[in-house]
Amino acid sequence: MQRFAIYFSPAPETPLARAAAAWLGRDIRGKELQPLPVVSGLDPARLDRLLQSPRHYGFHATLKPPFVLKPGSCAEDLDKRLHTHAAGLSAFMLPQLKLALLGNFFCLVTQEPPALQKIAADLVRDFDDLRQPPTAMELEKRRAAGLSPNQEAMLQAWGYPYVLDEFRFHLTLTGPVTDPKERERVAEELERRFPAALLQGICFDALSLFREENARPLHCLARYPLAKGDSFLLATRYAGSREAG
After folding, report:
1. Contact 187, 99 (CB under 8 A)
2. Is residue 4 a contact partner of residue 67, using CB atoms and an 8 Å limit?
């Protein structure tokens, strides 16, 4: 079985992507898992459980959640449409990312500009004709987390509860961390690995297509570059002039 997802993920060669790969023990381009880092004060088996979900999905921010292609659709259709869709969008610089707790898991978040919210909403809507509806078991799995009435409506309409007005841009770094002492230790480690300097000047410059095959870790099949918009070019020049100064 195959599932596809449309994500934002910084290019693997960027400092942020390299830091995330070292933390999660895998690069988004590969399917194989690498050894996890050693974190002082945290049992390796516990760290493995904390990172199990984010390392399976790869370092990303969800735009269109994982879906199975419906009968009659194929990966080539998805590829062609993503090329066209991405070419019609303009790249832009994300506001400063910051480490935060979303529920009980750690992630990187930012103040979402309208352009980002629109990109996510359009991808959910415009590619929905390729999506096979989820099974009853998949729906119940989502409901087990406890959904609001609006999230239930999103689940029924789009196969995922956290889209459109429930969408929140985030790059996941851990699974749930509920113990206060453990949470403090993980936060310290993440702050060390993802300092503020690493979380600025991040360009939203491409859409990434990920694929999951037979429940193996998702990996990036391709990145579809966005056009270089005026705001992106100006921000890039400004960043370059600051570095030169």
Report:
1. yes
2. yes
